[in-house]
Amino acid sequence: MKRKGMSALCLCLALGLSAFTGGVLAKTGEEATNGGASSPTSQARDSTQETVNINTATVQQLTQLQGIGARRAEAIVQYRDENSPFTDIAKLQEVPGIGPTLIENNRARLVL
Predict the structure, then answer these.
(1) Is the pTM of this model over 0.70?
(2) Do the Cβ atoms of 85 and 107 come closer than 8 Å?
């Protein structure tokens, strides 16, 4: 039994999951509630809708935005590192490959 529990824990950690209770996995930052059943609040809170701070986000976090792949995310981080933090969301357009449509498609999720 100990091995089975340890394997589940290792799997949870490898997948970035924080809770393993009652056969239900919860993503890091979420709570397993109602005996593991999702609450309406957690169902409404989709991880793809979380805000992304363009001044502190990692490449991986930036790739969660619509239309941002690894290359564009790396370009954002490089631009930010070389030119100082962004002072306005619209300044993202100064990064090669980032245009007004991409910014508008993600505006609700972008923060400074």
Answers:
(1) no
(2) no
